[in-house]
Design a protein that fits this description.
alpha+beta, 7-stranded antiparallel beta sheet
């Protein structure tokens, strides 16, 4: 595993054999010490911001705070995703060393081998929002899920989803494809 000081964006890691097959070793930066996790999160989010800049629906993307990203935000052209809204945004968070609530553990994860928590969440100015999240949620079994609601006053609908990707960049592209597919159906 690379140290936190190396210039590593989390997209390439040495592989190891696991119950999920041959996987990159801790591809999502999980299980690091707190300072290493902050530095790893910044590198991962910086890499994801750079990837977003290549997506045809993304107008602009930025991370905040500067120099130590905790999240990425992006302006999105909803027409590129088959939507009629005037404007939309995307928010991405990545927690390489998640602190899970009591009575929750990584053993509760289903449909993914990822250790990190993340949110890749799309929102329209008119109120519709949806996203792919990997985090403990009492409404879904296994942490990994898709959630959607028509307006901020509505309850979310939750669906279980699966991801094949095991590194942050692959997760981003797979989640964006899933969101785009769902937007076409909404």
């Amino acid at each position: 595993m690379t140290s936190a000081g190396d210039d590593d964006d989390g997209s390439e890691q040495p592989t190891v054999d696991s119950e999920f097959g041959r996987q990159p070793q801790r591809p999502d930066g999980g299980w690091e010490s707190p300072q290493e996790a902050v530095e790893k999160r910044h590198r991962i989010l910086r890499s994801l911001r750079e990837q977003l800049e290549h997506h045809p629906a993304i107008i602009s993307a930025w991370g905040s705070p500067d120099g130590q990203y905790a999240e990425i935000e992006a302006d999105v052209d909803p027409a590129q995703l088959g939507r009629d809204g005037e404007s939309a945004s995307l928010r991405v968070t990545w927690q390489p060393n998640p602190h899970l609530p009591p009575e929750t553990s990584l053993d509760d994860r289903r449909r993914t081998s990822l250790i990190s928590n993340f949110k890749i969440h799309y929102s329209e100015a008119a109120g519709f929002d949806c996203g792919v999240h990997l985090e403990p949620n009492p409404h879904v079994n296994g942490h990994l899920h898709y959630q959607e609601r028509a307006s901020p006053t509505d309850e979310y609908d939750y669906d279980e989803v699966s991801l094949v990707a095991t590194a942050p960049v692959g997760v981003l592209w797979e989640a964006l494809e899933l969101i785009a597919d769902r937007l076409q159906q909404a």
